[in-house]
Write a structure and sequence with these properties.
This protein is mainly α. Helix content is 75%, strand content 2%. The protein has eleven helices and four strands.
Length: 424
């Protein structure tokens, strides 16, 4: 069709030229018809120019629209992080415009669904974040890129993992809170379905409450037991409670004991001081004086307790010491009479008894001293140095043994003494 129109236009120009060539005036016969009929040809050219200008404007508008569409497509692809659609080589601008509009509508549709999916994950994340942390979930500018969507999914996954961990923590919080409520005698229910931040806040509040009340209760309990010890009352068995009611009951008990103590303080002090005095005498220690007040009485009781704990071993060691000194005294007496000739005129029974003592005396002494040394070591490990007459008795014993001289002719028989021998 287009070729036919061009052909017709060319034909008409040829026909026009043919007609004009037949009507050229004689005086201008040698000139070109286009020069002779210039004004007519100018009118034809002007008409063509007008038509050309008209449709050039249409073409330029179409080009501008296509450029705008291409720019929109490019920007959308950049945001969505997708490749630009491949553009075919299209000459017709209307067709190109339509093609670009179709591609842009596809991209807009993708953007719409992408944003819808992003909003879905944003809302889920916000809800989960608020449940976990009790504050609004702030996001940067939302962009419909696949990377943004993937990051959002990762964020939700991370929040979900946090929730799973906090669900485990919730169980512990609920368990601890129930324990706190039981001790505090609070009639309130908690559940793992409560929000974590609420449970956590309740936990902190009631934990601090329990800590503070436990400190208060420890002071009251100690005061009660101190007074019961001083009064020789049975010790109160305390309950595992921290409530105002229970603390009030213990304060009343404490007040009662204080009144009883004030009534009997002189009697109690005298009784305990007498017990301490007897123990100090038993241990060979100087008398100790304490003030007649709560502090002094507690010091007396603790001192009595300390001495009572080491009393049995002390008496055992003291008994061994006395037995050793008694044996040494008998050995000294025997040594004096052993050289007396008149001794031989004693009865055979008496002589046999003396001979038996002579043979067994030194081995018995060694055995006694070995046992004594072992007991002294045991005492030192448990209670510290054993004092006798305000001296370190272990050193005294060691010095006595090392400086001892045994009459070999009297007491040693069939073996040598490990100690220094007396010169005969």
């Amino acid at each position: 069709m287009y070729t036919e129109i061009i052909h017709n236009i060319n034909k008409k120009f040829i026909d026009l030229q043919s007609v004009l060539s037949t009507i050229i005036p004689l005086q201008k016969i040698s000139k070109n018809p286009t020069d002779i009929f210039r004004s007519e040809f100018d009118n034809i050219l002007k008409c063509i120019d007008d038509i050309t200008n008209k449709f050039t404007g249409v073409r330029n508008n179409l080009i501008d629209e296509c450029v705008k569409l291409e720019k929109s497509i490019y920007l959308k692809c950049e945001v969505l992080k997708i490749d630009m659609p491949r553009m075919p080589n299209i000459c017709n601008l209307y067709f190109k415009k339509e093609y670009l509009m179709i591609e842009l509508s596809k991209i807009n549709l993708l953007e719409k669904y992408r944003l819808r999916e992003i909003n879905y994950w944003v809302n889920k994340s916000k809800k989960l974040h608020y449940e976990l942390y009790n504050d609004d979930f702030l996001l940067e500018i939302i962009e419909p890129s696949i990377m943004y969507l993937e990051n959002l999914k990762k964020l939700y996954k991370s929040l979900k993992q946090d929730k799973e961990k906090k669900d485990i923590q919730k169980k512990e919080l609920v368990k601890d809170l129930q324990s706190f409520y039981k001790k505090l005698e609070i009639n309130e229910k908690v559940s793992i379905y409560d929000r974590f931040v609420i449970l956590e806040e309740k936990y902190k509040t009631h934990k601090n409450m329990c800590i503070n009340r436990q400190k208060e209760l420890n002071v009251i309990k100690q005061e009660i037991h101190d007074k019961e010890n001083l009064l020789n009352f049975p010790l109160t068995r305390f309950l595992d409670l921290l409530s105002d009611r229970y603390i009030g009951e213990l304060k009343e008990r404490c007040y009662y004991l204080q009144n009883e103590y004030e009534k009997k303080v002189e009697e109690i002090y005298s009784e305990h001081f007498s017990t301490l005095k007897n123990l100090l005498f038993l241990f060979g220690m100087k008398l100790e004086i304490y003030e007649k007040n709560d502090k002094g009485l507690l010091q007396i009781k603790n001192r009595i307790k300390d001495l009572e704990s080491k009393k049995d071993l002390f008496l055992e060691i003291n008994n061994l010491i006395n037995n050793r000194y008694a044996l040494l005294e008998r050995m000294n007496e025997f040594e004096k009479i052993a050289s007396d000739p008149k001794r031989l005129f004693k009865s055979s029974f008496q002589l046999n008894r003396e001979e038996k003592f002579r043979k067994n005396a030194f081995p018995s002494l060694l055995k006694l001293e070995t046992e004594l040394i072992d007991k002294l070591k045991e005492y030192t490990e448990k209670y510290g140095i054993f004092y006798k007459n305000e001296e370190n008795y272990e050193n005294v014993l060691k010095a006595e043994i090392e400086g001892r001289i045994i009459n070999k002719m009297v007491f040693i028989n069939k073996y040598d003494s490990p100690y220094k021998k007396k010169k005969m």
